[in-house]
Amino acid sequence: MTSDAQDRLHRFHAFVHDKTAQKAAKAEREAKSETSKISEIAITTSKTTEALAFLATEDRKLGTRLSDALAKAEDARVRIGQRLRGESNESPVELNPVDTHQLRLLATGIRERANKINDAAFRTSLKAATDAKNELADRIELNRHADALKAEVQRLRGHAGISAARRSLSTGPMTTKSNDLARTYVTATVSDRFTRETDRLGLEQVVLGDKGGNKGKLKHKPALLGATASGASVENVLSEGQQTALGLAGLFTEIRLDESKSAVVLDDPITSLDHGRRERVARQIASLATDRQVIVFTHDLTFLGDLIKAAEEEGVQLVERCITRTGAGVPGKILEAHPWKAKDAAKRLNDLDGLLAQLKKRQGEESVEDYERLVSDWAGQLSETWERIIRGEVVNKVVDRGTTEVRPKMVRMLALITDDDNREFQAGYSQVSKWARRHDKSEEVNFTAPTHAEMKAELERAKAWLKRVKAYASKTSS
Q1: pTM: predicted TM-score of the whole model, two decimal places
Q2: Between the N and C ends of the chain, which has fewer C-beta atoms within 10 Å?
Q3: In sequence order, what are the beta bridge partners of 406?
Q4: Is the pLDDT of residue 446 over 70?
């Protein structure tokens, strides 16, 4: 071949090979594109799923066959992609046959029914179906709690029965009758006792007012008998002392009606009371102590004397206690006896008798100066006792120490005191006053302590004098 022919042949060869390569590249691109399209094919979508669900309500068997066919188509799509990509050599998946004619007939029927549906009627039907569905769900839920609901129904029925029975009963007449019975059998007793207590405390024209009742419980309040004027209340008319006495009358009434006989504790009950009412309160307290324990705290020595006297008259046991301070001023020291200044003449003489016996024992143990001091202290206490006898058994018998009023009937007692009584008093009081170291003795005076017999004689003189004076007072009062 000529060179020219060879060139033409080479150019033809190159042309052929270049076109083939282009076609191969194009074919490869087209193959990849088609393969990609196959991969992107969506066998089922949300609309497909919705349509299948609706189809199942119209024809369950057809819907199932169509779902199976779509599932088989999905498997075929996957297999084709694998074969095209060279990932598998398995044979293609055979598709399930689908009767499209039956589907078209079914679709035609559904369209015809849809065209016949009235929008308003459909909404009504839909609401009825929805309500039926909700009711069915509620019934299912109620059935889960059937036992608890039955129990609650029974409880509510019982509660309704009780409420109906309670409404059928009127408590008004019962309350009225209860109040009437309480007013007849309780108020009368309380009012009578209250009147007694107020009389004993010197309160006049004070009664127990009926303030009505509630459910058989009556309310009472002290009132002035026959008071009609505006502002004529107990608080506005009675003094502070009288109101204190009124409060004690109410307390004594409650205690008297208390059948438990429990202990009573009174803390300074005579605040604001005059001396006359203090004596009456003392007698009432002593009377209470005849059948129960009564504890009285007081710092009033006069009232203490009234209590001691009232206890003796009632024949009740009196236990003495004293709360005082130590010599260093620390409070809280308890003594099992009343202090000297609180004791009456009889108790003082009894204490002096015991002290005299102790002095006799200590005479040989003490120095002369210490013994004389002890004797002087004893004599000073006997001198004070003489004064207590005069004040308590003579003066206070004739003149009320609280009101300073003279007791005319007791004046006769003064006439019973003889000249011998006067001489005995003057001699006894003078003698013990000499023994008591009330004043500084002169250096020229040689003080000699009295003998035990001399002291005993003076003590007996005071005892005898007290006994005679008490007899005079008793004779006068009778």
Answers
A1: 0.50
A2: C
A3: 399
A4: no
